[in-house]
Design a protein that fits this description.
D-amino Acid Aminotransferase, Chain A, domain 1, 3 domains, eight-stranded antiparallel β-sheet, four-stranded parallel β-sheet, 16 strands, binds adenosine-5'-diphosphate
């Protein structure tokens, strides 16, 4: 029934692809090269969204799902404040709803038995396999359509093309890469669409917002909760505090002054006398970490790739490789004397690659990259120098998790307001972290559009593999017109059942249960709902497919952060799930097979293979949402 019901409700978007010839032409164009992180955030308005009026979306002639979108949206999460209702009426309603749901499910099952199977394929991404070259007998291969609006990168485009993706410039797309969507665009997403940004991640990407978010997190949880941000002032608001602190330190500190929202080292300078800043200057001023860890006398920072697949529940992963980026010139301990020499003080690749020595050395072949190392090479080097890298990187992981915890509440509110489906968004962040001479990690910034351009063998090796792992983990689906037609027909047959107003009220019961769990009065693993099972299954499946990504949250060790985590139901559900001994056993053996997992929990009993699991995942998610009438989220 799960499959049938969800199919019946799945939105249908018929895709008209661009003219094949022109698409082909585009594929054959040379790869655009992108230099470094794109400061997409800088072009956004105060609230992080483009202030341009939303242009009418391009409509494909046979796109007919807008009506459905509106209907779905009208079932939205706003079910009224059930807490105000009387207990008695709640109970009566609850039993009515249970009965109604049972009847509905048995009717749906009968319909399902009469119906035919609809397959929803999951796209395989690979470094070596190119689906375009694989002949498929019989039916034409299902295609998926990607749209790039803003900066793209060769790694992403190549991964999509190899998986059979076709670039489109129109409205009917599967996956989106580039700028964050506008508010109205988020609201119109259908369940097949995946977007590479969550709304509201400017809280991380803008330097001023990041500092504010972390400072507010520290105010709520105490100064020890976050020790990784260099002391930061938003100028001119914090000017007085800045000058007072500077004088208190005998006017000896150096500060680094940055535009509030920019990238690639643009507009950055070192300042030894903050009084010289124009009182109206709008910028971020930060204490300069003047004793960095040096390698061969040069300063470096680390680029870490962090993937968030969901904010509710929070699920975040760190890739097991990354980059270390070096200054071209040796560091000068006399910061005051050398403050104008950015080749000694800024580690940005885009700054340092303009240095004459780099330009000269670039020509030499077979040499190690003069400005970049892989993160693995850096770790090996540090281990060789006697550094306890495990301890250092535990702190780095702590920094990453806490940074995301500092913004998750606000991003979740944006998600609730704007995004129709739980899995519409994901985001890859570039965390820039520096180590000081005492091996303490410092968060320098978070990039919401980290560069995925690969212009050297080192970049290619790291970024291509990461991108492939990322898309495999996300489980991007494709669909064909034939299948969409089947879905549409079933939707018509079942629409009266699905939109039953009585079923929508089932969510009252669930909300009550969730509130009890959040207050600690109930175990979330008691009476798992289908949506709960879906979330657990989704999370387990991600782990299976994580490749080089390591899950940092939730993890068995995230229990120590309990004090810092908002008691959000889905977070509690996964945290509790991980506490169960059999769940832990399974994590240890997770790479063996799905079959092993299957025996150990009822949630996975119907998902022996990845493909089948994906089908269930999609269907189960939709069915749970629609059937229980939980509304949009
Ligand atoms: P951008 O987004 O323009 O790259 P960053 O904040 O990343 O700006 O700063 C650019 C470079 O300046 C960093 O890569 C790092 O080398 C250096 N830097 C930034 N902040 C500090 C700091 N507080 N202490 C020492 N060096 C810093």
């Amino acid at each position: 029934s799960r499959r049938l019901l969800s199919e019946s409700l799945m939105e249908v978007r018929m895709v008209v692809t661009e003219d094949k010839a022109s698409g082909k032409r585009r594929e054959e164009e040379g790869e655009e090269e992108e230099e470094e992180d794109v400061g997409s955030i800088s072009s956004l308005g105060q609230d992080g969204f483009d202030s341009d009026p939303d242009p009418a979306p391009e409509q494909d002639s046979d796109t007919d799902d807008d009506e459905t979108d509106r209907e779905m949206a009208s079932m939205g999460g706003d079910q009224g404040d059930f807490f105000e209702e009387q207990d008695k009426s709640k109970q009566a309603e609850a039993s009515e709803e249970v009965q109604e749901k049972a009847t509905w499910q048995s009717r749906a099952k009968r319909l399902e038995q009469a119906g035919e199977e609809v397959d929803v394929s999951v796209l395989p991404f690979s470094l070596t396999r190119d689906l375009r070259k694989e002949e498929e007998a019989g039916e034409p291969r299902n295609k998926f359509f990607f749209k790039i609006d803003g900066a793209s990168s060769n790694c992403v485009r190549n991964a999509w093309r190899r998986a059979g993706g076709v670039r489109t410039h129109k409205g009917g797309w599967n996956v989106w890469w580039g700028r964050p969507l506008k508010q109205e665009e988020y609201k119109k997403l259908n369940s097949f669409q995946r977007v590479c940004h969550f709304p509201g991640t400017f809280f991380l990407g803008r330097k001023d917002s990041l500092a504010k978010s972390i400072l507010s997190f520290r105010r709520s949880h105490g100064p020890a909760s976050f020790t990784y941000l260099p002391k930061t002032y938003i100028h001119p608001e914090d000017r007085e505090r800045l000058l007072a602190d500077w004088k208190e330190k005998g006017s000896r500190s150096t500060y680094i002054v940055k535009p509030r929202a920019s990238a690639r080292g643009q507009g950055i300078k070192l300042v030894v006398d903050p009084e010289s800043l124009a009182p109206s200057s709008s910028c971020v001023v930060q204490e300069y970490i003047d004793k960095p860890l040096l390698i061969d006398g040069r300063k470096f920072d680390m680029r870490l790739y962090v993937l968030v697949t969901s904010f509710d529940p929070l699920r975040l992963y760190l890739y097991d490789d990354g980059l270390a980026r070096f200054c071209t010139e040796k560091y000068d301990e006399d910061v005051r004397g050398s403050s104008g020499d950015l080749f000694r003080h800024l580690t940005n690749y885009s700054v340092n690659k303009t240095h004459a020595s780099f330009l000269a050395r670039e020509a030499e072949e077979g040499e190690q990259h003069p400005l970049k190392w892989s993160l693995r090479a850096l770790k090996e080097h540090l281990q060789g120098a006697g550094v306890d890298t495990r301890r250092v990187f535990e702190q780095v992981e702590d920094l990453i998790v806490k940074t995301l915890l500092a913004v998750e509440g606000r991003i979740n509110s944006k998600l609730q307001q704007l995004v129709p489906y739980r899995n519409n968004c994901y985001e890859l962040f570039g965390f820039d972290v520096m180590l000081d001479a005492s091996l303490h990690p410092w968060l320098i910034e978070v990039n919401t559009s980290p560069s995925l351009a690969a212009d050297s063998p080192l970049d290619k090796r790291i970024k291509n593999a990461m991108v492939v792992d990322m898309f495999n983990m996300l489980g991007i689906c494709t669909y064909s017109r034939r299948k969409l037609k089947q879905l549409r027909d079933r939707k018509e047959r079942l629409s009266s059942l699905a939109f039953s107003s009585r079923l929508q009220r089932a969510s009252v019961v669930d909300k009550h249960r969730q509130a009890e769990v959040c207050k600690g009065r109930r175990d979330p693993l008691e009476d798992l709902t289908e949506l709960d099972e879906e979330i657990i299954r989704e999370s387990e499946e991600e782990l299976q497919l994580a490749g080089g990504f390591k899950r940092l949250f939730p993890s068995p060790s995230s229990e120590r952060l309990r004090r810092l985590i908002q008691p959000r139901y889905n977070n509690l559900l996964l945290a509790r799930w991980l506490e169960r001994p059999h769940a832990l056993d399974r994590l240890k053996t997770r790479r063996r097979s799905f079959a092993g997992a299957e025996e150990d929990t009822r949630c996975f009993s119907s998902a022996p293979k990845r493909q089948a699991n994906k089908v269930l995942r999609i269907v189960g998610r939709k069915e749970a949402r629609e059937a229980a009438g939980r509304g949009r989220r």
